[in-house]
Amino acid sequence: MDDIAGALDSLLAITAVAAFAPLLAGLVPRLPVPQVVLLLAGGMVIGPQVLGLASPTAVEPLADLGLGFVFLLAGYEIDQRLYRQDAGRRAIVAWFASLAVGLAVVGLLTWLGVVRAFVPVALAMTTTALGTLVPILRENAMLRGRFGSYLLAGGAAGELLPILAIAVFLGIGNRWVALLSLGTVLVLAVLLGFATRVLRPGGRLAAVFTERQHETSQIQLRFTVLLLVLLLAVTERFHLDAVLGAFVAGMVLRRWAGGSAPVLEEKLDVTGHGFLIPIFFVYSGMTIDLDAIAQAPLRLLLFFGLMVAIRGLPALLVYLGVLSLRERVQQALVTATALPLVVALSEIGLRNGTMLPENAAALVGAGMLTVLVLPAIAVALRRPEPVPLQQEPEQGVL
To answer: How far apart, in Å, are the Cα atoms of 298 and each of 264, 285, 295?
Structure first.
């Protein structure tokens, strides 16, 4: 009973942080702090290193499910058509350029003894916080037109490609098991693809899913949660990797949902962002090693500078000739903004022992700094839209 009471007390503190974070952001409209930063900061405050109101181990299963939802929604939001266009091709080239530079620079830091395993740190330098950026960019009318497609493609590459790399190189230690994990995910993708044929329009099964997607049944949402929990259970049992599976499942789910995709997306947002994902971020804040940051603050600033240089600077060259200098600088700032995947990657690295605790803490801190600083500069650089001149009324017209 004491364990149950302690778990409920921890969950109460975490859900309080999750509830008050958007409230604070709404009451202070000019507060230059995205919600994910407030969730992480709240986790630090209620965690064992500060107030001790909550224990991370008490909510770890829910946090795992929230981590799965992070990658599920990331895959669900990816528009695969972008990669058939020039914007998508250039985004892929820019990401691989960032990866090459990141491996070289972080490899040097490994040789100097600053980091222990350079692959997870190098991958952290190549991520983009697209989910965090989209509301900011949309509010400032930066997703419209041709330039908006380049911003979206760059952000999507910064989510998709690091997830693939994380699944192969970090999720598991044995390379043969890694290949098995990839094969399992491909089989899953094929099976889900065939499900779209089974649920053909006009069929009885499709009718059941359409009729019972609302009210108390919520059948599509329940099967989505079943799929995600099944992935987590199977991968935990057989030591495979759930990251890539959750991401691919999200990509295939949009096609599987067909005409109900917007409805399912809204429900996934409610379930994920309304409950499970905030728990994951608050949990992650509780596990950040604050003493390590306090003892080596320059490490945080080093990683911040590397994120800007490694992820952002290739954009100045890759988009030469298609974007203006101002737009290329904005592209660099946007793609260098990284936090949710850095948090997830740091958590994975800590759990499988591939990342030093001080590096994980510094990476998350640097990611928080990019979210606070870089989008604000990118928005400040946008060209103001011309204000239409008011026409003088014609003579004789009141």
So the answer is: 44, 20, 9
